[in-house]
Design goal:
- This protein is α+β, with helices and mostly antiparallel strands.
- Strands 1-2-28-27-26 form a five-stranded antiparallel β-sheet, with no helix packed on it. Strands 3-4-5-6 form a four-stranded antiparallel β-sheet, with no helix packed on it.
- It is globular, with a radius of gyration of 31 Å.
- The N and C termini lie far apart (about 100 Å).
- Belongs to the VPS16 family.
- InterPro entries: VPS16, Vps16_C, Vps16_N, WD40_repeat_dom_sf.
- One of its GO terms (cellular component) is lysosomal membrane.
- It comes from Didymodactylos carnosus.
């Protein structure tokens, strides 16, 4: 065994090499994607009057929206560029339905644009044309919206818009099933001459909003009979931005002088100062949450230099001169403009041609890989590494795990290594942690195996739970690592994957036209065909029908039939319905004979106006009730004379019965 070679290979994949300590807290930054010529696009954008850049949660697509003036002052158009798609492709669209004031994404990855004329627009960026785009009116007043915010939950996406006159908010709890509601904020507690300078959503369940008027913070919601009943004094200078943490428990506030404060959403305690601007020229201009763990602040020192300050979210620990010096002396810096997109467990940073993911190192991973950690998982991991390189230290560490110091040494060590692997992003480090867990499981199996002469053999519940966790995490990591590939471009962490859910992930793959990968995923996860593979195949057929480049209807029919005809459980009636909506009647007729019930065949033919074919199929089925049903439908559309002539031409038994 060549120890030098093996040791050097271990050093090359040092699991903590990407870690970095900011203000005594450990973070890591991972580059997840590169965009060709993105920085050049940004340079051109700097010269345009208005621009929006927005990224969907869970590593979704990025929208760049640029405004261009038309021939007249009122002729405003926008170019939409969509990036971070499979194979790094780009999509382009145009928008000319109003002046945009807000851009974001829904949980279904539809682009949502809010225009100042009181409307929001849902743009299906994956669709081949604009037929799936929707426009919903929030207010009939012209130029009525000044700002908007979206809030996402598993149940859907909601939208809140601030009226231009600052008299209240317009609320839509579900943008796909809009019910328009309003929240009024003007009463005796707030002077009518005050302007809302910042606001945010602090509870999406009862739609509670926190808003600032100069240096005062108020709240309002739909359920409370008295509005603006809470306020906080002592915050000097104007508040210019408010953002909530991912779990909606904490508010971060940015003041005009560059101060950053945080506080509880209940507003019952004074806010804690996390950074003081000291009236410096280079003030903080923007803030965003990094999961629930920290606030990232952007400070622009020049047009070519941007500092990112990392502020912890500990509400009980205010900034001190020492901690301020530490924060300002150790920053992330960029030489091109920076956009921040908060995630469940971190923040995505877009700058130049790169997209990076920045997060606080998860506690479960930190406790195992930290050099001086005494956790059972760390002991097992180090024991495995030393065992791998034939170091006797391994035996000593294993002995410590067996000692009474740990109440459940090996069980806990295996669990910690397994969970740590799920929180790691680098596949090579994941592999090392899982091998350490597997190494520990070998001792766990020996310990838990019952002796041959003792009654009925029963497997330990601890072992069963450990085995299930280990197998599930290996399966999920295998899937997550495949999603990182540029052919898919869905950079998810394990926590994001768990929060998103399998069905939502399948929907995202299908919308990206990744049907083959989605089908393999359902088989890999043993998802029932009707919930997985068959649903995906139906979506594939519908996309083939709606694809504007597919103009040969005969060819479309043959492709769909050849691929799906022998697959059991495919609901062809859904595919036929999509073809009917797309006005591709040849596809409809060609698919009628493929696993479609005679009743559905007849209904579709009658809808197409093919009465003769519908009647002939009904007669061939020898179903008297069905024939009479078709005749009644024909009779309703024809004159009595034409109807009687049609009957005389037919000699079948059902017709004779009808004539009687």
């Amino acid at each position: 065994m060549n120890m030098d070679t093996d040791l050097s290979s271990y050093i090359n994949i040092n699991p903590i090499s990407s870690w970095r300590i900011f203000n005594n807290i450990t973070y890591r930054k991972i580059e997840t994607c590169e965009f060709k010529n993105f920085s050049k696009k940004v340079e051109r954008l700097d010269k345009i009057e208005k621009q929006f850049v927005s990224m969907a949660q869970f590593g979704g697509p990025i929208a760049i929206i640029t405004k261009r003036q038309g021939m007249t002052q009122n002729d405003i158009k926008y170019n939409i560029t969509i990036m971070n798609l499979p194979l790094h492709e780009e999509k382009h669209k145009e928008f000319d339905r109003g002046t945009i004031v807000y851009v974001n994404w829904t949980v279904k990855e539809d682009l949502i644009l809010v225009t100042e004329d009181g409307k929001y627009h849902l743009i299906d960026i994956f669709y081949h044309n604009n037929n799936n785009d929707e426009s919903i009116t929030l207010s009939e007043s012209v130029s009525s919206i000044s700002e908007a915010r979206i809030f996402n939950a598993k149940s859907g996406s909601g939208l809140i818009a601030l009226k231009r006159n600052h008299e209240g908010f317009i609320v839509v709890k579900n943008v796909y099933d809009p019910i328009i509601q309003t929240i009024s904020i003007m009463n005796s507690d707030v002077r009518s001459n005050l302007t809302i300078t910042a606001w945010c959503v602090i509870d999406h369940i009862d739609t509670t909003i926190a808003y600032a008027c100069d240096n005062m913070i108020y709240t309002c919601n739909q359920s409370s009979s008295k509005k603006d009943q809470q306020q906080i004094s002592g915050i000097n200078d104007t508040i210019i931005k408010m953002v909530t943490s991912f779990d909606y428990q904490t508010i971060a506030v940015l003041k005009q002088n560059g101060d950053v404060l945080i506080g509880s959403k209940s507003l019952t305690h004074p806010f804690t100062l996390k950074f003081n601007g000291n009236n410096e020229k280079t003030r903080i201009t923007d803030i965003a949450w990094c999961g629930n763990e920290a606030i990232i602040a952007i400070r622009s020192t020049s047009t070519t230099w941007y500092d990112l300050l990392i502020l912890d979210s500990n509400k009980s620990k205010a900034i001190t001169p020492t901690s301020r010096e530490i924060i300002t002396s150790d920053t992330l810096y960029y030489t091109t403009y920076v956009w921040l997109f908060p995630e469940l467990d971190g923040v995505r940073i877009l700058s130049g041609d790169t997209l990076q993911f920045f997060q606080r190192v998860p506690k479960e991973l930190y406790n195992v890989l930290q050099v001086i950690s005494e956790e059972p998982g760390a002991q097992l991991y180090n024991a495995y590494i030393n065992y791998k390189y034939e170091n006797q230290l391994s035996e000593m560490l294993l002995t410590r795990l067996k000692s009474s110091k740990y109440t459940s040494g090996f069980e806990e060590a295996v669990r910690q290594c397994t969970i740590a692997a799920s929180n790691e992003i680098d596949p090579s480090v994941q592999k090392m942690l899982l091998k350490a867990a597997l190494f520990g499981r070998s001792f766990l199996s020996l310990k838990l195996n019952p002796t041959p002469n003792i009654g009925t053999k029963r497997e330990s519940p601890i072992k069963i739970q450990t085995n299930n966790t280990f197998s599930n995490i290996i399966m999920c990591l295998h899937l997550i690592n495949n999603l990182q590939d540029k052919s898919i471009s869905l950079p998810l962490t394990y926590k994001q994957f768990d929060c998103l859910g399998i069905q939502a992930l399948i929907n995202r793959l299908v919308r990206r036209n990744l049907h083959e990968f989605a089908t393999k995923l359902t088989k890999f996860l043993n998802i029932p065909a009707d919930e997985g593979e068959n649903r995906i195949l139906v979506q594939w057929a519908v996309q083939e029908i709606n694809n504007p480049t597919n103009t040969n209807e005969e060819s479309i029919s043959e492709i769909i039939k050849s691929r799906l005809e022998n697959v059991s459980g495919i609901p062809f009636i859904e595919i036929i319905g999509a073809a009917f909506l797309a006005k591709k009647t040849i596809v409809v007729r060609r698919l009628l004979d493929v696993k479609v019930t005679i009743n559905d065949q007849v209904d579709i033919l009658l809808t197409l106006g093919d009465k003769e074919e519908a009647l002939q199929r009904a007669l061939k089925s020898e179903n008297t009730d069905l024939v009479l049903y078709v005749l009644m439908r024909i009779k309703a559309d024809e004159s009595l004379t034409d109807y009687m002539l049609r009957l005389k031409k037919l000699k079948s038994l059902p017709i004779n019965l009808h004539l009687e």
